[in-house]
Design goal:
It contains five helices and five strands. By secondary structure, it is an alpha+beta fold. Helix 2 packs antiparallel against helix 3.
C-alpha cells in the first residue's frame, strides 16, 4: 500500500470476485466456489455459443484453474484468495482510504446488456458508492473506487 500511496493516484479502482474464496475452512471455500462458479458458467452459456473459443477459454482456463486452486490446494499452493467487497472496505480503511462515487459512471452500461439476458444479469449498488454485478441473484464481481484521505 505504501508503493501505491507513493504514486499519489487520484483514484484507485478495484474490481474483485464477489465471493469468499479465502476461508481457511475447506467446506466454506468449496460451497462459495460451487455457488459462484455455477452462476459464472451459467452466464457464459447464456452469452456465448457452445463452440465459441472465448467460452472455452473462460471455462477451462479461468474457471477450471480457479476451481482447482480453490478446492484442491492448501497453503502456499493456493493462490486464488478472493474476498468480497466488505473485506476490501475494512482493508482500505486501515490505510486511510475512503470510497468515492463511481457507480453512476458504469450503471448506464447495464442498459446495453443482451436483451435475452437482461432479467438474469443484475447491476446493483452496494452502499452508496460501489457496484456489484450478478447473475440470477448470485453476486459475481464488485467494482469500487478509492482515494487516500491524506
Amino acid at each position: 500500500m505504501g508503493t501505491i500511496k507513493s504514486i499519489d493516484p487520484d483514484v484507485v479502482v478495484v474490481t474483485e470476485v464477489e465471493a469468499n474464496h479465502n476461508s481457511p475452512a475447506f467446506g466454506s471455500r468449496f460451497m462459495e466456489a460451487l455457488y459462484f462458479f455455477n452462476a459464472y458458467l451459467d452466464a457464459t452459456q447464456a452469452y456465448f455459443d457452445h463452440d465459441c473459443n472465448c467460452r472455452m477459454a473462460v471455462e477451462s482456463v479461468y474457471c477450471g484453474e480457479s476451481i482447482r486452486n480453490i478446492v484442491a490446494c492448501e497453503g502456499e499452493e493456493r493462490v486464488v484468495r478472493n474476498v468480497p467487497l466488505r473485506a476490501w472496505r475494512l482493508f482500505f480503511k486501515r490505510f486511510g482510504m475512503v470510497e468515492v462515487e463511481q457507480a453512476r459512471l458504469v450503471i448506464h452500461n447495464h442498459n446495453i446488456i443482451n436483451a435475452g439476458c437482461r432479467d438474469l444479469c443484475t447491476v446493483e449498488r452496494d452502499g452508496d458508492k460501489s457496484l456489484v454485478l450478478g447473475w440470477k441473484g448470485t453476486r459475481l464481481h464488485s467494482v469500487s473506487a478509492w482515494k487516500f484521505t491524506t
